[in-house]
Amino acid sequence: MLEHILGQGWEVIPAGGATGEAFFAKHQDQKLFLKRNSSPFLAVLSAEGIVPKLVWTKRTENGDVITAQQWLSGRELKPDEMSQDRVAKLLKKIHDSAPLLSMLLRLGKTPFEPEMMLTQIETELDEELLNLPIIDSSLRFIQQEVENIKTDNYVVCHNDINHNNWLLTDDNQLYLIDWDGQMIADPALDIGMLLYLYIDSKKWNEWFIQYGIHADEQLLLRMKWYFVAQSLLFVQWHRTKDRLMEMEQWINRLQAII
């Protein structure tokens, strides 16, 4: 199917990933990253310079839409590089982007309210996990504080700002890739995850200046709330997948802040 769209001489290899819908394609010195049925959101991400350039979009006979992006040589950021100024700047650019927000609204996305996240956690956490004191106290924290983290500021959030989703190309361009989990939410959802995972708390103020925000007590509470909430979801997810070492890591992170 992909060979039919690309024409003769292209070598196509699966790119791995959760969906199995992504491929690398190569022909002489041309290289493309192909995805089947990716969101129209990709075009706006490309136009904003947040992901590698969208080269073309084609529809197949069976109605699938194939997108082709530049396949750029590069590497993912290392954990200790996440404190770099350019990471804060790119995240700020994403959170401030009116075109990204407008496109997600047009695609029917509505803001992800903290109550929705709380309901998801209460529904998904299994009995055995709830018997662990740290899980119980983390859940109580987000239940007690859910009313105190209201904000009117909803932006486009990536929702998985792990260091391996940041692509640094050989010519020193930084991109944030893998947008499958994107949502309209409180920017504290992305900021909390980045700071708690990668930045020493003594350097948080420095990071806030790079990002261009004044951090007050309410922002710090919102960051903590979202980090605890996401951590609980990660604990459950890794447990479901029987990845007990990763589950323990998330439990230890909760121990450190609750």
TrEMBL record:
<protein>
    <recommendedName>
        <fullName>Aminoglycoside phosphotransferase domain-containing protein</fullName>
    </recommendedName>
</protein>
<dbReference type="Pfam" id="PF01636">
    <property type="entry name" value="APH"/>
</dbReference>
<dbReference type="InterPro" id="IPR002575">
    <property type="entry name" value="Aminoglycoside_PTrfase"/>
</dbReference>
<feature type="domain" description="Aminoglycoside phosphotransferase">
    <location>
        <begin position="15"/>
        <end position="224"/>
    </location>
</feature>
<dbReference type="InterPro" id="IPR011009">
    <property type="entry name" value="Kinase-like_dom_sf"/>
</dbReference>
<dbReference type="InterPro" id="IPR052077">
    <property type="entry name" value="CcrZ_PhaseVar_Mediator"/>
</dbReference>
